[in-house]
């Protein structure tokens, strides 16, 4: 007899140590199954009839069953036990699956045999996702039907065991039915637990797709750890108890995460309140640094935090307004004059202002703000354009070439990796970079943004990249953060037209609606966003470290618990 059983109290003690690990509950569920099939979940009882005796009776029952279709019974499954997976507890033994069940093939159907009425045809999709059923009017052998309570196994790309709980159905050939050879000597539910554990083991090993090629012979040779029948029943009862506990822990965790999300939102509101001035901001930032690491447990929360900051920024809710500053309406007049003068000085044809009358959101913006089309905010000598259509192969000492995958907001290499022939690049001189431009992906990953560093001056861009060069009278940093906000990203997604792949054309880019504050406020917004993003960086680094630590602790505790006796598990979890 082993020293104690793995109780609900021990599971709770272990969970308390690892509760904040992202995958704690799924890992604990797998852990319970691992313990179950290794004889470490419940006590052994020396008075239980050894499993070897069960196996003898099962073999006797198998010998009495008539060979199917005139074939001799295949005994190869019994020869599969060459390498046992672990040392079994006293009273246990090992058996090949084919010694315990019959593996019965389903039926393959032609499309014309699948009808709208008759006997249901159970397909793999009906087990996992699909509620659409086909039917058949064929009369088949009983072996081709499954009844409620039958143990079945889906072996296609989506695979795993099921206890069928539906009506009498014909099972498809991607499903095996696994009737027990002797129901009096084997628990169907224990075998189901083993197959769950084995399926997960196959998936985690990365061989899930190989189940498409799983043969009946391979299935029959799966090695099953077999406890005494009484212990099988105790194991099933204990697994059900612990899985129900995991269900409750999962529900409690979901409620806890919801509370944390609300508290995080409240902390963010306090941090980003418009009335916070430069003197009080550090106080609130310190509070956030102390509070948010406790509340923030998932990467998606930090991503949401970053996007919330940007959204507040472009709606005039991140910094206070100053009524003495030149309003955006006056700034736009100066920008218009600047664009005309610059075009004239460069002797280029001035592009007409982009018609833009959508002021539907103006009421929600501060009085000093305006909304303007981005096409009216760019340098008239470097209008919004995309670049080289067919760049050709790399050439030595060619022109540096910027592709969508090169777009980044920081951490740029000195030069882009790809270079193209000068004669291919020459016709696209208008899209050569000067350095400092905003780059927007317009094909494929619509809305992805980057900045051209000064070291990329002279490079050209791909057809999938649009160059946006702001006028000097606005903050290019503010324009970039506005384009990162949900306001612009949603516009890009909705404006995309689909050809061979998603594409955003220049005309749609030119009318991107930019909420424009006074110039001085643009600079204040950029400064505060930088401070808040730095705070997010700290939170992210802290979360990464904490997540790694939790994951390692969970791994260590489970490894120790799985490798030792239940008594050792209690010490590991204490």
TrEMBL record:
GO terms for molecular function: endonuclease activity; hydrolase activity. Residues 89-250, 399-541 form the Type I restriction modification DNA specificity domain. Pfam families: Methylase_S (PF01420). It is an enzyme of class 3 (hydrolase). Keywords: DNA-binding, Endonuclease, Hydrolase, Nuclease, Restriction system. Its EC number is 3.1.21.-. The keyword Zinc does not apply. Belongs to the type-I restriction system S methylase family. This is Restriction endonuclease subunit S.
């Amino acid at each position: 007899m082993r020293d104690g059983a793995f109780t609900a109290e021990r599971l709770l003690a272990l969970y308390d140590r690892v509760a904040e690990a992202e995958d704690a509950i799924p890992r604990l569920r797998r852990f319970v199954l691992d313990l179950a099939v290794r004889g470490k979940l419940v006590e052994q009882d020396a008075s239980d009839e050894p499993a070897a005796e069960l196996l003898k009776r099962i073999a006797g029952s198998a010998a009495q069953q008539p060979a199917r279709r005139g074939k001799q019974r295949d005994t190869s499954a019994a020869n599969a036990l060459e390498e046992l997976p672990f040392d079994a507890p006293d009273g246990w033994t090992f058996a090949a699956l084919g010694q315990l069940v019959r593996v019965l093939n389903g039926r393959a159907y032609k499309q014309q045999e699948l009808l709208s009425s008759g006997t249901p045809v159970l397909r793999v999709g009906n087990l996992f996702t699909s509620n659409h059923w086909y039917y058949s009017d064929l009369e088949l052998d009983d072996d081709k039907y499954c009844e409620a309570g039958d143990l079945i196994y889906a072996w296609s790309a989506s695979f795993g065991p099921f206890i069928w709980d539906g009506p009498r159905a014909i099972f498809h050939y991607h499903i095996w039915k696994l009737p027990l050879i002797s129901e009096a000597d084997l628990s169907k539910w224990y075998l189901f637990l083993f197959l769950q554990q084995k399926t997960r083991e196959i998936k985690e090993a990365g061989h899930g797709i190989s189940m498409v090629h799983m043969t009946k012979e391979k299935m029959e040779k799966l090695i099953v750890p077999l406890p005494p029948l009484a212990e099988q029943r105790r194991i099933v009862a204990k697994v059900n108890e612990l899985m129900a506990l995991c269900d409750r822990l999962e529900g409690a965790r979901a409620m806890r995460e919801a509370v944390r999300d609300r508290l995080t939102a409240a902390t963010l509101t306090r941090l980003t309140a418009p009335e916070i001035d430069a003197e009080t901001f550090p106080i609130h930032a310190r509070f956030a640094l102390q509070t948010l690491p406790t509340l923030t447990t998932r990467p998606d929360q930090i991503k949401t935090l970053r996007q919330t900051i940007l959204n507040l920024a472009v709606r005039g809710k991140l910094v206070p307004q100053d009524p003495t500053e030149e309003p955006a309406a006056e700034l736009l007049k100066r920008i218009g004059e600047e664009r005309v003068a610059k075009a004239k000085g460069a002797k280029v044809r001035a592009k007409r202002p982009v018609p833009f009358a959508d002021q539907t959101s103006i009421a929600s913006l501060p009085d000093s703000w305006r909304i303007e089309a981005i096409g009216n905010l760019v340098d008239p000598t470097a209008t919004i354009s995309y670049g080289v259509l067919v760049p050709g192969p790399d050439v030595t000492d060619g022109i540096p070439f910027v592709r969508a995958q090169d777009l980044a907001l920081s951490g740029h290499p000195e030069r882009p990796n790809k270079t193209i022939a000068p004669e291919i690049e020459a016709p696209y001189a208008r899209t050569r970079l000067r350095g400092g431009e905003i780059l927007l992906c317009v094909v494929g990953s619509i809305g992805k943004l980057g900045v051209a560093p000064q070291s990329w001056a002279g490079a050209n861009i791909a057809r999938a990249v649009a160059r946006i060069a702001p006028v000097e009278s606005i903050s290019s940093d503010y324009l970039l953060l506005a384009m990162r906000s949900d306001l612009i990203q949603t516009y890009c997604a909705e404006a995309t037209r689909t050809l061979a792949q998603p594409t955003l054309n220049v005309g749609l880019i030119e009318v991107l609606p930019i909420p424009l504050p006074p110039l001085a406020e643009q600079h204040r917004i950029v400064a505060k966003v930088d401070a808040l993003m730095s705070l997010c960086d700290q939170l992210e680094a802290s979360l990464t470290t904490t997540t790694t630590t939790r994951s390692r602790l969970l791994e260590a505790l489970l490894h120790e618990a799985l490798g030792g006796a239940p008594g050792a598990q209690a010490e590991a979890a204490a």
